[in-house]
Amino acid sequence: MTTSPLARPPVADEVDILLPGLCQLVQEYTPLRTAQSVPEELPEDGSDVHAILARMRVVMSGSVNIWTDRFLEKLYNAPTATSVCADMLLSALNAGAHVYSASPLLTEIELICVQGLAKMFGLGDDADGVTMPGGAASNTLALQTALANAFDGVHRTGGVLGIVDHLERAGRSGRGARPAILTSSQGHFSLQSAAIAAGLGADAVVSVPSDSTGRMCPTALKQQLEAMLGDAAHPQGYPFFVNATSGTTVLGAFDNLQEIAAICRQHKCWMHVDASFGGAVIFSPKWRYLMDGVENADSLTFNPHKLLCVTQQCSFLLVRRAATLNAHSIEAGYLFHKSGRDQASKTLGCGRRSDALKLYLSWLRYGVSGFGQHIESGFETARRLREYIAQHPRLELGPLADPLFLQLCFRPKGDSASVPVIRDKLLQQGKFAVDFAPVQGETYFRLVTHPRVPYSTFVELVEQLVQLAGN
Ligand SMILES: *Cc1c(COP(=O)(O)O)cnc(C)c1O
Q1: What pLDDT, in 10s, does the model give residues 218-270?
Q2: CA-CA distances (angstroms) from residue 217 to 210, 222, 257?
Q3: Is residue 77 domain-resident?
Q4: Are 117 and 317 in contact (CB under 8 A)?
Q5: Closest ligand 1 atom, CA of 303?
Q6: Using a 6 Å CB cutoff, which residues line ligand 1?
Q7: How many folded domains does the chain comprise?
Q8: Are residues 235 and 106 in the same domain?
Q9: Range of 18's domain?
């Protein structure tokens, strides 16, 4: 009889050496990143915990150290300790969040968070939702959910061909009978991926122009919809889904949800709001107006793992009408026993992690008011930094959102070409990291004043960039 070496109860070594060792490593750990690599071969035989701890040290020092506050490339930053602990608790529990029986309390916590967020966004009493592994996954499920609901249920059995057939019977013809989705030119690429995954194809995504501050032009949206609906054989297809963005990726713009909602209602389109990044403004009494009109959304994506300092992944897809999220449920007698509370049956997946626990404990720790102050401090930092850059003799600001959110685009005066070069030098120094992006035909650094990071750090980075520009 062979016993599995993995079958032992927790061994003293793991608890006495690995865990305290890991905690110590986190405290010692300071550079942004050092060049490290690991041996490529995987071993035939196992090793003791001291070897594991040594390898953990290598992994840590060779990885980006988010705790330095100097990794300013992306839309997330260092997680709070509460959320790290929540994550460790989840790992220790290792509960599958697909069915209620495997994770009863965690499922309840997920539903509490769904209701708490739905209330913040004003989605009403009939709202429902699930956590998803990221904003792109939430957007993809939103599109699938819209497809399943928008065409009298023909999609579930007939697929995209069933929809085309349905539209042809309703008088559409040729390419005009292909379902299409509209999103702004500043929308996230995941809408395109979602269209490909849904079998609609990338051609099904129609880009609506944005203004110079990054907001979708509602008039352009209206004209585009009217043109497509007015021509039964329109080459861009039949529009049924509009994606509005709250907090665009590059400029941080908030689309006008009130106007877009009115247009969607008039033209019977599903309204999705991608608030992956900007949704956190809902916690601030001062800034939540940026999302006025969100209460009309049919679905909404929000990522606590971006601005709320929850560990990755933590994303929610919310829907205004609970029944719409049941379109994907499948009979599987060996798993779903009609509890009605199995979160996986609302998704296209099976096994899931209870990511909501991380938001739940963070919400208990900081409250709506704490999240609100956090967001407000980010707005203030962005404003101060905008003034700093505007007055800088060697820098110029690029296009900005209005009102300004957390993204600042800037470059050495009149010089797009040096931006990627300076960034490479910066990365080589290994002290700071910042990203760049094309905006309206020019190239700019895109700095995100994440509220986790103090103002002085941003100034230090800007000065570092100026210095590298001079070399
Ligand atoms: C970050 C982001 C996404 C993607 O979220 P992931 O969690 O990285 O998958 C989608 N839309 C917008 C607007 C985003 O900012």
Answers
A1: 999 999 999 999 999 999 999 999 999 999 999 999 999 999 999 999 999 99
A2: 5, 9, 11
A3: no
A4: no
A5: 7
A6: 75, 134-136, 188, 190, 245, 249, 274, 276-277, 303, 315
A7: 3
A8: yes
A9: 13-63
